[in-house]
Write a structure and sequence with these properties.
Shape: globular
Structural class: alpha/beta
Protein name: ribose-5-phosphate isomerase
EC number: 5.3.1.6
Bound molecules: ribulose-5-phosphate
Family: Belongs to the ribose 5-phosphate isomerase family.
Radius of gyration: 19 Å
Pfam families: Rib_5-P_isom_A
Helix content: 25-40%
Organism: Arabidopsis arenosa
Strand order of the largest sheet: 2-1-3-6-12-13
């Protein structure tokens, strides 16, 4: 396992603009976690003193929050306010001394940085396999810029049709009724709907006191906007994990370097 890919190789390259690409001097074998850290460090280069920041949730976003804490401690960032997307991130940020607030006090966020479970070529996302989709969607939807950080394994042709879960947050009241409505709505895509379980086989409970149904789809959903609307119309559904047309930029770390894609144009590394 090689550790030699130094994210500062990217971070210190003055020639890079936000939409450029960095490649390491030679290919190296990196763990998935190292790739996540590289993407996260690159995203933190967008952070400026005085910003209100949406702080994401998950193993990739954790690296970004750590890095923001480190830069604050070193005095390289000042007057940052973080808006955490989960209780877990809130605890991490507090432990790092990052000042925190919420959407009530800061309804407009300068920049959010978060991971994703799947990213399609149009920068549509599946999120929420870590359980925080509702707060993530509220906070990232209120952001002027939303930077998504992933390792290259998260890139897919179509979101949601990979048999991996599309999470849907539902109210606990009569959850079987809602899960069945969801299954039947998405039946045409070869859908199974499974209640997410947590510790000791009990239902996983979100930070908002809700349950999650994981929708396993065999086929891609085609018109994502139509499916999104139909899911949200079901009584009992609180939110789903499709983040359509929300990401401004996606930073993808791979064995051959970092690729940055944004809504308007894409660059590729060689
Ligand atoms: O949406 C999320 C949490 O609800 C995460 O961003 C997503 O699950 C990616 O997680 P990771 O960075 O650990 O792969």
């Amino acid at each position: 396992m090689a550790l030699a890919y130094d994210p500062l190789f990217i971070a210190s390259d003055k020639a890079l603009s936000a939409f450029d690409v960095a490649s390491p001097p030679h290919p190296m074998i990196l763990t998935q976690d190292e790739l996540k850290r590289i993407a996260a460090y690159k995203a933190v280069e967008f952070v400026e003193s005085g910003m209100v920041l949406g702080l994401g949730t998950g193993s990739t976003a954790k690296h970004a929050v750590d890095r923001i804490g480190e830069l604050l401690r070193q005095g390289k960032l000042e007057n940052i306010v973080g808006i955490p997307t989960s209780k877990k991130t809130q605890e991490q940020a507090l432990s790092l001394g990052i000042p925190l607030s919420d959407l009530d006090a800061h309804p407009v966020i300068d920049l959010s940085i978060d991971g994703a479970d799947e990213v399609d070529p149009y920068l549509n996302l599946v999120k929420g396999r870590g359980g925080s989709l509702l707060r993530e969607k509220m906070i990232e939807g209120a952001s002027k810029k939303f930077v998504v950080i992933v390792d290259e394994s998260k890139m897919v042709k179509h979101i949601g049709g990979s048999k991996l879960a599309l999470p849907v947050e539902i109210v606990p009241f009569c959850w079987k009724f809602t899960a069945e409505k969801l299954r039947s709505l998405l039946e045409g895509y070869g859908c199974e709907a499974n209640l997410r379980l947590g510790e000791k086989g009990k239902p996983f409970v979100t930070d908002n006191g809700n349950y999650i149904v994981d929708m396993h789809l065999e086929e891609d959903m085609g018109d994502l906007g139509a499916v999104s609307d139909a899911i949200l119309r079901l009584p009992g559904v609180v939110e789903h994990g499709m983040f359509l047309d929300m990401a401004s930029t996606v930073i993808i770390a791979g064995e051959l370097g970092v690729k940055i894609k944004n809504k308007q144009h894409t660059t590729t590394s060689s």
